[in-house]
Write a structure and sequence with these properties.
There is one protein chain. The protein is built from 23 helices and seven strands. By secondary structure, the chain is mainly alpha-helical. The protein has three domains: 125 residues, HUPs (Rossmann fold); 186 residues, Serine Threonine Protein Phosphatase 5, Tetratricopeptide repeat (Alpha Horseshoe), CATH 1.25.40; 178 residues, DNA Cyclobutane Dipyrimidine Photolyase, subunit A, domain 3 (Orthogonal Bundle), CATH 1.10.579. Helix 1 links the parallel strand 1 and strand 2. 47% of the residues are buried. The structure holds flavin-adenine dinucleotide and ligand DLZ. The site of ligand DLZ has 16 residues, from helix 2 and helix 3. This is Cryptochrome/photolyase family protein.
């Protein structure tokens, strides 16, 4: 091999910059399954299976496409177990004159490549990942000199840059954002489209067996694995979403319903993040659905905003702020992550539902991640690093560039407000309004303190009281702090005592909150 083009597991795009730069006649592609990556955090078994199977299908596509390929499987006899070792072994095998990477999605991996480059005596190219619409440099230029890095303004620039939903210089429909129409709670008589799933083929069956044997202690279950592992199947998921779910995506984007993990969400994030789908193609397809007149603008705008807005923005934040970002802890939260995050063994119905579906599918939609598991961890004062490691492991779509800002920044406010203008903190009232989780919960959303009260209620006020020094000056929290200030001393004490008792039981590590609240 003249040049080795190294393709990581989340770079499964046929038009990847390195492949475009290479020459099939003389260059070769290296892909590696390595145990060290599987063990960085407690990855969901379905996530491991999805990645390894998609990687194996992708290398087959490249081989059929005429590339020389070198694929190191996890159980290859001499697999050294990490990227560094495997790249060095490949260099020894093929004696290339150059290595070519596309910039990886993780700061740690980029550092590894830089260290390797400094140590090898052949040139190493690191090409920009142009599957993203906003390059790292362009984001840094956008951020430069701004007092606040608010997504909404970034998003408008991305609309102008891409031309998506633009009518000349103006946004389609006369507004940039239709979120005001997008906050309907779901009713259980809605018709929810079933998710498109795929029967495992021989490659996937081998991978399922390997993951089952090699990672028996990892989070989640492999049962019912039905994720797409090829571009064609991911495209079929996109078609299915556009035709059946997108029209209601906006209306019920924030809603949560028992037994309905997806509602009208797309579940396209794993495919976008590993490269089976291209973000701009996905957005164009959604735009066509609007222009064709069969999908409302509030749905299409909301969906496109998630991709050219949030997705690009969080990547920009990640690269702008790493490596300091992962250590941020603005609220000095130190509590251990409760054990029930790994088991769903809690009697708080909302957490049980969301963690339960996470164990089963490796999926929860945005509001579930933000307002149930994220909200609880922040209110309870859990160490943001532990929360980050949980999210990075348990979701099939989790890669650090996208997971970390969403967790450290948006959901835990550990970055002190770089991403969010206020913490996404909510009491039971929000959960009961936006979901049906509270209906048969043993805790009551409308009971504020004492036995039987939903823990979110006292935790909410305890959180504000505990973090007064950092949060009270935030203008967007003026109202809740004013409400807290107007409460009688007895009422405030009651809240704080209820929260304290709950947190002590939580720290006890058992499910004692159950018995005590009975
Ligand atoms: P849809 O609701 O159908 O949205 C469409 C697409 O928009 C998604 O597929 C995704 O690509 C993009 N998108 C939506 N919201 C965001 C966002 N906030 N940031 C980036 N992209 C977004 N998303 C990940 O892809 N990987 C993660 O590891 C991840 N971790 C998260 C952790 C926390 C604490 C929170 C609050 C959010 C996280 N998100 C993450 C963002 C979001 O929850 C998921 O992208 C979304 O739930 C994926 O499901 P979906 O494909 O059905 O999304
Ligand atoms: C997450 C992951 C896992 C579990 N395994 C591999 C692997 O064996 N080979 C690979 O190329 N990538 C893997 N990944 C993704 C990487 O951890 C990392 O997120 C990406 O390489 C981006 O830098």
């Amino acid at each position: 091999m003249r040049h080795i083009l190294i393709v990581f597991g989340d770079q499964l795009s046929l038009d990847l910059a390195s492949l475009r730069s290479g020459d099939r006649a003389s260059d070769g592609v290296l892909m590696m399954e390595v145990a060290a990556e599987a063990r960085t955090v407690n990855h969901h078994k379905k996530k491991l299976a999805l990645l390894f199977s998609a990687m194996r299908h992708f290398i087959d596509d490249l081989t059929k496409d005429g590339w020389q390929t070198d694929y190191v499987s996890l159980d290859a006899p001499d697999n050294s177990g990490d990227f560094n070792g495997e790249i060095r072994r490949a260099v020894a095998r093929h004696n290339p004159s150059r290595l070519v990477f596309v910039e990886p999605g993780e700061w740690r991996v980029l550092e590894m490549i830089k260290a390797l480059a400094a140590d090898l005596d052949i040139p190493v190219d690191i090409l920009p990942d142009d599957r993203f619409l906003c390059s790292r440099d362009a984001f840094a230029r956008w951020a430069d000199g701004r007092r606040e890095l608010r997504m909404e303004y970034f998003y408008r620039d991305m609309r102008r840059q891409t031309g998506l939903l633009m009518e000349g210089e103006k946004p389609a429909g006369g507004r940039w954002n239709f979120d005001a129409e997008n906050r309907k709670p779901a009713q259980d008589d809605l018709f929810m489209p079933a998710l498109k799933t795929f029967k495992p083929d021989a490659i996937t069956r081998d991978v399922l067996e390997m993951v089952d044997q090699r990672f028996p202690d990892h989070f989640g279950t492999l049962a019912g694995f039905g994720y797409a592992v090829t571009r064609a199947d991911a495209e079929a998921c996109l078609d299915h979403f556009i035709n059946h779910a997108l029209p209601s995506f906006g209306d019920y984007q924030d809603a949560m319903l028992k037994g309905q993990p997806h509602l009208y969400h797309s579940l396209l994030s794993p495919y976008l993040n590993i490269g089976l789908l291209d973000p701009m193609d996905v957005c164009r397809r959604a735009e066509v659905a609007y222009l064709g007149g069969h999908t409302p603008l509030n749905a299409v705008e909301g969906f496109i905003r998630q991709i050219i807005g949030w997705r690009e923005y969080v990547r920009g934040i990640y690269w702008l702020k790493m490596p300091e970002y992962e250590g941020l802890n603005a609220l000095k939260a130190t509590r251990k992550l409760p054990d029930f995050y790994w088991t769903a063994d809690t009697d708080m119905a909302c957490l049980k539902e969301v963690i339960g579906q996470t164990l089963e599918h490796g999926y929860a939609h945005h509001i579930q991640r933000l307002m149930i598991t994220g909200n609880f961890a922040m209110l309870a004062g859990v160490d943001p690093r532990a929360v980050h490691e949980w999210y990075l492991g348990v979701y099939v779509d989790a890669f650090e560039w996208v997971e970390m800002p969403n967790t450290i920044g948006m959901s835990q406010f550990a970055d002190g407000g770089i991403m969010a203008s206020k913490p996404y903190a909510a009491s039971a009232n929000y959960i009961s309004r936006m979901s049906d989780y509270c209906e048969n919960c043993r805790y009551r959303a409308d009971v504020k303190t004492g036995n039987g009260a939903c823990p979110f209620n006292a935790l909410y006020w305890d959180f504000l009281d505990r973090n007064r020094d950092v949060l009270a000056k935030n203008p967007r929290l003026r109202n809740p702090y004013a409400t807290w200030g107007r409460m009688s001393v007895e009422k405030r004490d009651d809240y704080l005592r209820t929260a304290q008792a709950f947190l002590e039981r939580l720290d006890g590590g058992s499910q004692k909150e159950t018995e005590a609240a009975a």
